Amino acid sequence: xxMERHTGRxxxxxxxxxxxxxxxxxxxxGLYFRGTRSLPPPFTGDEPGPAYLPLWLTGIAFACAIALxxxxxxxxxxxxxxxxxxxxxxxxxxxxxxxAYVAALFRVGYWISTLAYTTLIALEFEYDRSRSMxxxxxxxxxxxxxxxxxxxxxxxxxxxxxx
Amino acid sequence: xxxxxxxxxxxxxxxxxxxxxxxFMGVLFGAIPGLTATLGIALLLPFTFAMDxxxxxxxxxxxxxxxxxxxxxTAITIRIPGAPCAAMTMLDGYPLMRRGQGGRAxxxxxxxxxxxxxxxxxVLMFFAPQVARLTINFRSPERLLLVFMALAxxxxxxxxxxxxxxxxxxxxxxxxxxxxxxxxxxxxFTFGFPLLARGVGLxxxxxxxxxxxxxxxxxxxxxxxxxxxxxxxxxxxxxxxIRDMKQVGWWLYVxxxxxxxxxxxLPGAGGTMASFLAYGEAKRSSRHPEExxxxxxxxxxxxxxxxxxxxxxxxxxxxxLGIPGDTVTAIMFGVLLIQGLxxxxxxxxxxxxxxxxxxxxxxxxxxxxxxxxxxxPLYLRIVTLREGFLYSLIAAISLVGAFVAECSVFQVWLxxxxxxxGYVLRxxxxxxxxxxxxxxxxxxxxxxLRRSLSLSHGSLSIFVTRPMSLALIVLTCVFIWxxxxxxxxx
Lengths: 163, 490
Fold this sequence. Notes:
The structure holds two protein chains of two kinds.
Chain A: H1 2-14, H2 17-37, H3 52-75, H4 89-108, H5 110-126, H6 133-157
Helix pairs in contact in A: 2-3, 4-5, 5-6
Chain B: H1 5-10, H2 13-31, H3 37-48, H4 53-77, H5 87-98, H6 102-135, H7 140-157, H8 162-176, E1 179-180, E2 187-188, H9 202-220, H10 234-248, H11 250-265, H12 271-285, H13 297-321, H14 327-338, H15 345-350, H16 352-371, H17 376-382, H18 387-406, H19 409-427, H20 432-455, H21 462-465, H22 467-489
Antiparallel strand pairs in B: 1-2
């Protein structure tokens, strides 16, 4: 049952990756195109203005998005060029930790936020080795080491004031 | 000859220390699986703000040179190439290791890397001024076509789908258009965020795309012990090499290095292709081709001499034409910009005071690699550093570095955003090199394009009516055709 579920997830992720990518690219291109519309015209009629290159880029991105969609539709379901299977839990946790760190860095300051962040990142990597108290102690030691080294490099050696 | 004055500038302990430190860092970044010289130079970027020009460039050269060599250490000892370009080294290095001749293999890799790198730097010193003199009269249309050639060739050389390569380059250029227009005092694509008017900083972009996305990719993999490299005695590294070198002969080193430097000068080619071609040539000309893949010293020498000579070759188009050929030189482009130097034909002629020490640093870094052979046992201990420590340190240095470089919280958020974007694109098989090149070269491309079209009153015919422009278009088409044919054959 577990295996079936896993296989099902893989198939779902493989399904029309090109179509999904094409739609995302189309949406991004649309957003970018909206930005070009507010750009001023050039000073004189025969010279390119600020919108010249962005309009070319919009055109190329639009053509690529259509090409991806056509490729995806032709390929049909069940296959795709990119293998999107994988364990996304850990990268997601890392993203959440990083966002929380950036938010905390300027509120609680360098020491507490960096120590907490680096310890948790170290724990995430060390967790695969063993899940014991010793791993936690290692992670704290690694976090403390990373925090101290980063401080030494930026604040002591370069004389930059950290938050 | 004036370029040799760089040695006089660099052979001072206070400057030499940056070369040695950079080389040491580079070897570690190259040797530790998962870390690369690209990441090493990306992490160096925030520090270069606070450094003088010569030390900053010297350190970058050290990291570049060390990173190319470092990959061979783990390729030979634990069969995991620290850098992709060391994959060919592994073919013969690891069988030697299994036969109990690991020291011999490392010794050959070290000497070949150093000698190959030195040949590459000599070629760089000889050719760079000639190429600069040849291209100094290039005007906006030709310069635009050079930038276009770099982008097109990198897209054509990227692995996998051509369509995805084009999309990656276009996305990079789109990101580069955010912020103040290069020719008018007007901001673009702020999408309601006034802070976007400053644009996306080079350091947040490089750190996000290379460091943060790398951390995200690494968390996904299962980590365990990659294997501890065995203890190697120093006398086992040096003595067999001196014995073998007489048998192998100097021509193999020079030939492989020349292949490397030639490949390095082509945009989008890089160390992996150079070592592959040099290995093939060494096998073709060997008296014992059957030994290749089973511990042939010649194969190992060819691969290492070629991929280290690439450094010299790759810097030629960067400093003479202003076109980086790979990610490392694209970031090096950033190091030069941060120091107020605009890569291009004028640079080598007008700023010889900086370029000469930069080239000398690359040569000295290769000597540092050779002398650093005494540190081999130490390198092999350090490469087994725990991932928990490595990646927590990289994460802290990256994010704090992004803040330090721009003094803007918003730019740190952009770093995180671009890190996530880089990760998503990598998962979907979009190559990172065209994305980075599009971002770095985008502003130059736009400036040259608009200047050219202003000259021609908006007519695109300016690119085909000038003989040099036309020649560059033809050259670009030839490169693309050759690269795509090579990709299809592979």
